[in-house]
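Lecture notes, continued. The same structure-token format from the folding unit now serves as the input rather than the output. Read the line below as a description of shape only.
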């Protein structure tokens, strides 16, 4: 029973593995030659820049073309290092790495070497540990065992305090450079992988973008390989990470370009069971019906042939519109001259014009679905052209024109007639299979006037394309310009390989004169007439008598005031010549004068600008005057009370 259970478990495990492999999706793109050329341009610009980091990453991917260029780069390298504001351990790492890669003849300053050799303890970040250890590696200097053990303990302590994605990424990259005692870092791989974010179900990435994602992937793959651990990702995760990296191939910095290439190399270095591959259609996916040969490319993420050339490649051909199957198992054969190209001949299945899809299966491990189309050819079965009276009851004499000839005689039509064209389009190689195309136009062109008019030919219920034009009713489209016009039939469709323009006939069209107005021909790019702004005309004023009466009514309260003052008498005994008294009355009078001027000529904004200082002055003087009057009355009242008491 135990043996039977083990056998069943093993069978289920193998079956599950087979199903998982069979459902692995292949990516639909790779790092193409154009992408690599563009990235090489990024590296070339980086090595010629004054940025220390850019020079370092560029030196890892391109070499100077001459000794003179190498000398200039090396001299510039030391200058930008001195001017760099990066941390000492980071810029020393860039300097040492670039100098060794470029094989600079200059000796490294002793101060820099001392900074590298003297490793301070403890180090507070995994990034610093990585830079210092890798700098020793570039120099070819072996760190003593005692220091390595301290660094391992230091690394363990840092990860206990700081376990961010960046910290883990640098730890993965440096652990195998220390000692076998740093194997504990491999236990943190799963902690990092579970933090990957999925995008649209097709991509995986880490928070922080390309730099963090590449740092973790390359480091996890490296440490897993060095410590003989299982790969950190499964086939589906590798596929999704590959999709993310390929979506970032438009990077513009040397660092981004370098870590992108390194990440794709790491994914391509997986075992054939896990490494993502690219299955891509070659060409534009348009096949001729008489020779339908479908070509695909099967490469790794860098566009190179696979380590193990695929042997069993089959495809299932589907009609996209109908959803039916045309062929169940179409075999792809390798092209002898190219290890990445595989061909399938669809001729035995006799595909007709239309849209297709093929589901490709490679070694029962990878699958990809690509779309393609079979192009057909159109043939003019019959074309009839005629001119008749606009009256529908009258018959039209039609002439048959054979494709691709032009009617030898010139036709004439005036504004009382109409032009009728009928054309039947069929698929070439058949006798009665009509075709519906996306574009069917009738074009009229007058060479003398350089005038072009295009109409749409509509398909009727019998699948015949028909064009019927009333010459008089369409005169406006031709700008009432009579003359000789070329009549051209235009037929086009995305699924046709022989779309055409056919000069059917020459027509002399006679339009009526434009009774509305003569059409003024104005150049398209002429100077437009000047626009002169006109204000609204002022409204008519009322009669002088009405204005005088209204003014008199407004002055009536003032006249009544003076009359009342005259009868009652004006008491000016309390008027003094104090500055506040004189200032208040002058300010008040000024306000009245300002209102009078506002009535006559000023606008509101001008009046407010002048009123502000006058009103402020009047307010201050009035406040002072009222305080003085109040003090005077208070003193007078107290004196009167004292006299009454005595």
């Amino acid at each position: 029973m135990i043996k039977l259970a083990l056998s069943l478990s093993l069978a289920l495990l193998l079956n599950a593995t087979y199903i998982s492999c069979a459902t692995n999706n292949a990516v639909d793109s790779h790092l193409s030659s154009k992408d690599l050329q563009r990235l090489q341009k990024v590296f070339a610009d980086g090595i010629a820049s004054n940025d220390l980091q850019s020079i370092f990453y560029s030196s890892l991917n391109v070499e100077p073309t001459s000794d003179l260029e190498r000398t200039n780069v090396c001299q510039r390298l030391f200058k930008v290092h001195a001017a760099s504001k990066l941390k000492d351990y980071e810029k020393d790492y860039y300097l040492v790495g670039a100098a060794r890669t470029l094989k600079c003849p200059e000796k490294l300053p002793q101060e820099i070497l001392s900074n590298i050799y003297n490793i301070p303890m403890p180090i507070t970040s995994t990034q610093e540990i990585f830079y210092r250890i890798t700098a020793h590696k570039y120099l070819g200097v072996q760190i003593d065992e005692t220091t390595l053990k301290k660094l391992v303990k230091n690394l363990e302590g840092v990860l206990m305090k700081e376990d961010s994605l960046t910290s883990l990424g640098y730890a993965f990259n440096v652990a195998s450079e220390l000692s076998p005692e740093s194997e504990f870092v491999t236990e943190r791989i799963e902690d990092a992988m579970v933090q990957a974010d999925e995008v649209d179900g097709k991509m995986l990435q880490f928070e922080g973008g390309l730099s963090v994602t590449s740092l973790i992937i390359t480091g996890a793959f490296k440490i897993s390989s060095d410590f003989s651990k299982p790969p950190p990702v499964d086939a589906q995760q590798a596929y999704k990470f590959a999709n993310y990296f390929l979506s970032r191939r438009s990077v513009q910095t040397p660092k981004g370009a370098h870590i992108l290439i390194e990440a794709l190399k790491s994914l391509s270095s997986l075992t054939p069971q896990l490494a993502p591959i690219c299955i891509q259609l070659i060409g534009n996916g348009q096949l001729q019906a008489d020779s339908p040969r479908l070509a695909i490319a099967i490469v790794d993420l860098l566009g190179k042939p696979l380590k193990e050339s695929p042997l069993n490649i089959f495809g299932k051909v589907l009609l996209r519109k109908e959803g039916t199957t045309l062929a169940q198992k179409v075999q792809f054969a390798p092209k002898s001259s190219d290890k990445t190209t595989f061909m399938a001949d669809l001729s035995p299945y006799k595909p007709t014009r239309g849209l297709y899809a093929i589901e490709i299966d490679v070694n029962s491990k990878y699958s990809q679905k690509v779309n393609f189309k079979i192009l057909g050819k159109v043939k003019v079965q019959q074309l009839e052209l005629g001119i008749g009276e606009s009256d529908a009851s009258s018959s039209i004499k039609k002439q048959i024109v054979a494709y691709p000839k032009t009617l030898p005689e010139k036709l004439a039509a005036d504004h009382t007639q109409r032009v009728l064209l009928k054309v039947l389009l069929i698929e070439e190689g058949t006798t009665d299979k009509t075709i519906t195309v996306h574009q069917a136009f009738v074009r009229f062109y007058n060479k003398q006037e350089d005038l072009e008019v295009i109409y749409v030919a509509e398909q009727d219920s019998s699948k015949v394309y028909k064009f019927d034009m009333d010459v008089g009713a369409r005169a406006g489209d031709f700008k009432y310009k009579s003359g000789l016009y070329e009549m051209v039939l235009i037929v086009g469709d995305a699924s046709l390989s022989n779309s055409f323009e056919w000069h059917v006939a020459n027509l002399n069209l006679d339009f009526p004169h434009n009774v509305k107005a003569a059409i003024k021909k104005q150049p398209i790019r002429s100077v437009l007439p000047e626009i002169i702004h006109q204000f609204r005309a002022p409204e008519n004023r009322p009669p002088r008598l009405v204005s005088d009466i209204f003014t008199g009514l407004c002055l009536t309260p003032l006249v009544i005031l003076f009359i009342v003052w005259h009868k009652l008498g004006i008491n000016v005994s309390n008027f003094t010549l104090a500055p506040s008294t004189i200032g208040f009355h002058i300010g008040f009078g000024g306000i009245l004068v300002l209102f009078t001027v506002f009535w006559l000529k000023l606008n509101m904004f001008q009046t407010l600008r002048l009123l502000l200082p006058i009103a402020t002055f009047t307010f201050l003087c009035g406040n002072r005057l009222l305080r003085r009057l109040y003090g005077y009355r208070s003193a007078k009242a107290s004196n009167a009370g004292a006299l009454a008491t005595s």
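Point for the exam: The mean pLDDT is 86.
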